[in-house]
Give the backbone structure.
Amino acid sequence: MTHAISLPHPGRARPGAYDLGVHDIADQALAARAARGDTAAFEELVVRHQDRLYTLALRVTGSDADARDCVQEGLIAAWRGMPRFRGDAQFSTWLHRIVLRKAYDAIDQRRRRPEPVEEVAAVAPGSDPGIRSELLDALAALELEFRVVAVACDILGMSMDEAGALLDLPAGTVKSRLHRARARLAEAIGSEATT
Amino acid sequence: MSPDEIARRLREEGMAQAPPDLAPEVMRQVAREPRPRRRSWPRWRPVAAWATAAAAIAAGGFAISQLGGGGSSSSEANSSAASGAAPTRDVLGAAYAPNALRVYTVASRDAARILQLAGVTPAHGSYLALHGKRIVAAVAARKLNQVAAQLAAAERHPGPGPKVRVRLVPRR
């Protein structure tokens, strides 16, 4: 649960006040603190968003190693760019865009210099790591423009508008691509099931 | 499988957990980074914007005053009167360079010679009687470029004797 309250200034707050409050503070307030060089605020943001960022990078690149690099580089880039975050967009969207750009770069680099791609190892929390999901295999084989929409909307649970902001697409385009992505996944799984 | 079923399964199966050492590793790197600083530029941006606008207005005003004869520029940079800027057309359609209409500081003998050749006669007395003063010479628009070029040349290579300032205006 988040509250839009301001974070006590480390230099002026009573001892412990800052640490007690940091988990309850909204992203925007934490981002404002991080922009002023507050590493504790930034760490809270990293912890909050790391799973979603990692999922985004993993499902887009299809590689565990690439995903890890993308998130790491993306978060460092975000830290460097914190003063430029103006707060007129959602912080999480801004962060996801940075990591997504890194994921696109990783895919481009792989296309230019083909290397054997490490198999996707990460699975849903609580599921058997030995079982690979045929659906996730089908997702990994989907064209990038459809895959990224399915990841944003269905896996990360973004609204059409949020996904549009992430991908620089109108909500209508997101909707139609999502529809086609689901249809292609259904078709892929259906054909696998029948073979 | 229906699209809704696909969406549900993606939601359930798609999320992954970040490696446990990811956040500590990121924060280790962050600790090595210099602290991000807000640039002081944004604080000055409004002032800078106003200053830029004021400078632009001042420059525009200066340029207009030069064209209209308010100044007395005699710099070498402006001396190429008949070339450079896009030509202006007067109401009769004659074209001349806008910067031809500036003020020229030339020897009064040169001024007399050039303006007489152009068919311009002084309203009161001779040009030689106007030493140190400014003459407003109304020249036919079709001759403006030619007269301006001659005045500019005379300004670049001033003859002996007292000087006079000549401002050209187009005559219909």
About this structure: Residues 41-68 of chain B form the longest helix (28 residues). The beta strands of chain B are 88-89, 95-96, 103-107, 134-140, 163-171. The CA atoms of residues 82 and 145 of chain B lie 5 Å apart.
